[in-house]
């Protein structure tokens, strides 16, 4: 009984000055709209940019780094154990890039419940021959199916068929920049020389565009078998194992674990790409700062209007207090008014924000670097709608807090006698 | 029916602006149930100040105040508000109706705050009061559309809604013409006679005071005759 009366009085006071109320609510609506649209668009863009790298990057990469042995023979010799060792001119050992016992490692990792999947990879440096020109490049031997499933390989094949890599023997997919240099269209044959000096002819079955131009000028893809063949290696030869996890945040932990268990170099995505995360968080902070600034400005508008309302409604406040409404009750009425503006303005703002972001979603956005994107990216994350409504309530509450306090302190005697 | 509704014991009050000045000095009196009392005195004699202390709205005084046998002095703001809501009805010189509500809703406001009876019973009571005061046809009107006399009668109905122990009035006829003053006075008289309602009315109109049961006359912050 008591609560509806508060709302009833608050509503009546609001409606008595509905034009001012509307202006205040529009302020909130506008700021929430911009907050939602800005964050959806910004994070959409962030996701897109991060996706450029993160989609194509394994969460954990297992490989063998070429480097000197960390334990040199002299350290193992018992007679020199208590001595201080100074070794000059240490050379990298006769370590291979190949991952030892790759089959067993892959089998073991696949069974791990935290792992979404793995894709083996071979990196091989080659020269592409074009007339008498030699262009350096890299051929990655990949498992097309695993690569597509985990790293969206087909999304980046702009011409030809990714599956042809497996179906057509001795085939290759060239990076867009590389294909332009070699003047190699789909169906053409390119000649390449391996680092050991052997020459091969491979058929071009597609063009690949990652969005990062420098990479597209050098990289190309072939099936695992094809690369093993041109390098003259057995079909257990693998230089990288790319692991994708169910939860990306576990990557550092798992990398450490794999490093220990398999005695192999393991690099996690956070270490390899820390700069991307920094960029993302900075952009997010900017969006939030702008959104919150808008809300604070709207909050001041509400504060102003409520203050004015209190001066206008002095008589009403005095009579409410005289007829038995306590200061606390009057306080609640004005808080209710502020929250009413916040809820109404906030809800409309959420709706408008959704409409505005879906409008941005329709704007064409074509760029050579991003073949799969045709319109501006929008991230429809419900979290932003939640934050937006929470913020609209908090700011309007704060904006109403001081005027409400002032109203609750109105002394009815002063008002009634002052007439 | 001789229980004491309102009792003031040794009430003193000072104003400090611009210099210390005693507004009220040793005020002692009682109002019994069903009494129609008027307070008269010259402008500045402290009669309005006394009324606001009696009404519990002004708590800055020395002495003791009892309403319906309960000590008011020292109670918290919230408790005093509850007492005003339930035990005291107000009629002011200016009508102080809320323009945002209809006449009926204005009358219901203190009752809805008290919320002791169901809504339907409250509405019945409000309509009964409107009928008693002969203003039934105004129920759904906005206070802005009413004449001064009508507004004052609505204010009286609002004061009556919670069946208060006492109704207090601060110059309720001060702003009205002769005819409307007469209507308001007879309304008060009707309340006193029909409902045995206690009334304490501050006025500077000797004619009005003459017709009440009892006159308390004040001068320079003291009661000189009662």
Q: In percent terms, what proportion of residues of chain B is strand?
A: 25-35%
Shape field of chain A:
elongated
Order of helices and strands of chain A: HHEHHEEHEHEHEEHEHEHEHHHHHH
Uncertain stretches of chain B = none
CATH superfamily membership of chain B, which one?
P-loop containing nucleotide triphosphate hydrolases
Per DSSP, the total helix count of chain B is 7
Assembly annotation? heterodimer
What is the top-level CATH class of chain B? Alpha Beta
First and last CA, distance of chain B: 20 Å
GO molecular function (chain B): ATP binding
Family (chain B): Belongs to the ABC transporter superfamily.
Protein name (chain B): ABC transporter ATP-binding protein
InterPro entries (chain B): AAA+_ATPase, ABC_transporter-like_ATP-bd, ABC_transporter-like_CS, MacB-like_ATP-bd, P-loop_NTPase
What is the topological layout?
The complex is a heterodimer of chains A (419) and B (226).
Chain A: H1 2-16, H2 18-54, E1 60-63, H3 73-76, H4 102-111, E2 115-130, E3 133-142, H5 144-151, E4 157-160, H6 164-167, E5 171-175, H7 176-182, E6 189-194, E7 199-208, H8 213-216, E8 219-223, H9 224-231, E9 240-245, H10 251-262, E10 265-268, H11 269-272, H12 274-312, H13 314-322, H14 327-362, H15 382-408, H16 412-418
Parallel strand pairs in A: 3-8, 5-7
Antiparallel strand pairs in A: 1-9, 1-10, 2-3, 2-6, 2-9, 4-7, 5-8, 6-7
Helix pairs in contact in A: 1-14, 2-12, 2-14, 2-15, 12-15, 13-16, 14-15
Chain B: E1 4-15, E2 21-32, E3 36-41, H1 47-54, E4 62-67, E5 70-71, H2 77-87, E6 88-91, H3 103-114, H4 119-132, H5 148-160, E7 166-170, H6 178-195, E8 198-202, H7 206-210, E9 214-219, E10 222-225
Parallel strand pairs in B: 3-8, 3-9, 6-7, 7-8
Antiparallel strand pairs in B: 1-2, 1-4, 4-5, 9-10
